[in-house]
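Quick one, C-alpha cells below. Sequence please?
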C-alpha cells in the first residue's frame, strides 16, 4: 500500500483529526484503521508513528485532504495565547482541520442543528444511501454523498425516508439553490470571510454556527469561529465572564464571542476553536 513518511517537524495525529467531531463519514476499527468516503473515493488509512499507510487515493490527495501542507507548528504558536488554550493544544497534539467537500459539508451542517453526532451521522448516511452511488470496497458497500441535483430531482418527499425532521425542507431547498455546484463553490471561496458568511446564510437552514462550520471545514477560512453550547460555555468560564449562560445564545453574544476570538487567537482562531472543542470535558 502507498505510504507517507512524515518528517519530525510535521505534527499530525490521524485519531485526533478524524475523531474530534469535524467529520461524520469516517469509522475507526479496533485495530486503529480508519475507513471513510470522500467524494467518489473510499479511503482506508492507518497511522503507525510517523507513517501513514493508505488505500483508495493518491498521495497528493491525502496530503491535501489532511492539510499536511500547512505549518501546524507555526499555527499553534499563533493561537497559543494563554494557559487554557495551551492545555487544550497539549491534549490534542497533531489535530488538523481536514479539507471537506463543500456541498457535503454544507448539507451535513444543515442536518446537524440541535443534534448529537450519532444522529447527524445517521442522517448523512441515509441521504447517501438514498441518492448517492454505491461503491464496493473490501466486500462492503459504501455510498458517495449525492450532488445537489440528485437531491433536488428526487423532490421534497424523496427525503422522507432519511428522517431529517424539520431539516428536510432545508436540505431540499438548499439543494435547489445550489444549481451549479462548482460555480457556487468558487464564488464562496473567492469572497472575503464576512461576505462568504452572509452568502451561505442565504441558504435555507444555514444559521451563523452552520455558516462558520462550513467556512472553516470546507473553505479554509480559518478566521471562522463556530459557537455552539460547548464553546459558549468554555468562553464564558475562561474568557468572557460577562456572558449569561442562563439566557439563550443571542446574535449579540455570538458576535461578541467570535470577535473576541479573532482578536485573542488571531487569524487562525478557527484552529483554536477546534482544539477547545476537542479537549472539552463533560
Amino acid at each position: 500500500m502507498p505510504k507517507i513518511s512524515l518528517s519530525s517537524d510535521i505534527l499530525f495525529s490521524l485519531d485526533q483529526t478524524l475523531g474530534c467531531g469535524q467529520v461524520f463519514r469516517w469509522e475507526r476499527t479496533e485495530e486503529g484503521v480508519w475507513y471513510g468516503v470522500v467524494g467518489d473515493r473510499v479511503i482506508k488509512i492507518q497511522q503507525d508513528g510517523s507513517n501513514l499507510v493508505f488505500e483508495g487515493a493518491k498521495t497528493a490527495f491525502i496530503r491535501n485532504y489532511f492539510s499536511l501542507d500547512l505549518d501546524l507548528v507555526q499555527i499553534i504558536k499563533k493561537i497559543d495565547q494563554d494557559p487554557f488554550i495551551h492545555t487544550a493544544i497539549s491534549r490534542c497534539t497533531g489535530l488538523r482541520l481536514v479539507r471537506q467537500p463543500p456541498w457535503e459539508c454544507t448539507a451535513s451542517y444543515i442536518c446537524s442543528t440541535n443534534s448529537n453526532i450519532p444522529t447527524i451521522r445517521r442522517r448523512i448516511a441515509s441521504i447517501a444511501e438514498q441518492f448517492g452511488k454505491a461503491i464496493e470496497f473490501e466486500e462492503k458497500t459504501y455510498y458517495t454523498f449525492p450532488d445537489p441535483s440528485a437531491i433536488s430531482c428526487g423532490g421534497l418527499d424523496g427525503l422522507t425516508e432519511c428522517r431529517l425532521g424539520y431539516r428536510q425542507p432545508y436540505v431540499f431547498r438548499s439543494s435547489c439553490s445550489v444549481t451549479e455546484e462548482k460555480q457556487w463553490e468558487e464564488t464562496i471561496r473567492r469572497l472575503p470571510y464576512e461576505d462568504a458568511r452572509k452568502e451561505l446564510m442565504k441558504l435555507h437552514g444555514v444559521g451563523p454556527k452552520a455558516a462558520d462550520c462550513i467556512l472553516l471545514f470546507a473553505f479554509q477560512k480559518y478566521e471562522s469561529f463556530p459557537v455552539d453550547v460547548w464553546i459558549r460555555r468554555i468562553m464564558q468560564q475562561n474568557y468572557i465572564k460577562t456572558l449569561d449562560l442562563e439566557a439563550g445564545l443571542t446574535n449579540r453574544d455570538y458576535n461578541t464571542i467570535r470577535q473576541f476570538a479573532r482578536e485573542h487567537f488571531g487569524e487562525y482562531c478557527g484552529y483554536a476553536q477546534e482544539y477547545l472543542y476537542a479537549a472539552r470535558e463533560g
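The mean pLDDT is 95. The domain at 3-69 is CATH 3.30.310.260 (TATA-Binding Protein).
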